[in-house]
Amino acid sequence: MTAIKDAIKIIDAAPKITFLTGAGVSTPSGIPDYRSLQGVYQGIDQPEYLLSHDCLVYEPQKFYQFIKQLYHPEAQPNIIHKKIAALARKKPVWVISQNIDGLHDKAKTPHVVNFHGNLYDVYCCKCNQSIPWEKYLTCDIHENCGGRLRPNIVLYGEGFTTDVVNHATAAVKSADLVVIVGTSFQVAPFNQLLYYRDKHAKIMAINQTPLAIQEPFTMVQCAAEDLFKEINI
């Protein structure tokens, strides 16, 4: 296991970095993760169903009542988001995020792929018009056409757009260092992005629990915010 100071040296030395970020990056901003004891899935039967395309289509009110709990508009970028954004202003840095909270964009990170979409990007399923997320939180029916509103996120049972996949794989291919941050890295196809890295690119994981990755990698077992606060930019 690598110490924080040694991990920072690796990050500083890498010419091009791609970060793969998960829920552990946003928990310091007050956004609950999904599967921990304090996570949004706790005490809910079949939580994945509530975030599925089937639930949206066949039980839209059940979907709507659950999805509203995932909105945290008061949340602000924390030290992890801010330091990654600052790094990206110094050298080529991409972020591919599992998170749907938009905090990397809020931190003004130049190159972000929201792999699973963004809760704050809402549209009408009938007329495809973009709708302010604030209106969505008051009603999930479009007042203009009567269509169902939904956030532009990837639900269980839905596929990924070609654009998202192409941008994500290109970002991984271009990196000299791929840094996995705040994720158990068990959800496909996000965890398959490593297949696209250059054979000479290094892999680092920053997470509170050890990860099981088949490729050689550097494990930094710590809270991500503890590491990023020590990066000088």
From TrEMBL:
The keyword Protein biosynthesis does not apply. It is an enzyme of class 2 (transferase). Coiled coil: none annotated. The active site is at 116 (proton acceptor). It comes from Candidatus Enterococcus myersii. Residues 1-233 form the Deacetylase sirtuin-type domain. Its EC number is 2.3.1.286. Zn(2+) binds at residues 124, 127, 139, 145. PROSITE patterns: SIRTUIN. It comes from the Bacteria. Transmembrane segments: none annotated. InterPro entries: DHS-like_NAD/FAD-binding_dom (IPR029035), NAD-dep_sirtuin_deacylases (IPR050134), Sirtuin (IPR003000), Sirtuin_cat_small_dom_sf (IPR026591), Ssirtuin_cat_dom (IPR026590). SUPFAM superfamilies: DHS-like NAD/FAD-binding domain (SSF52467). Keywords: Metal-binding, NAD, Transferase, Zinc. This is protein acetyllysine N-acetyltransferase. Pfam families: SIR2 (PF02146).
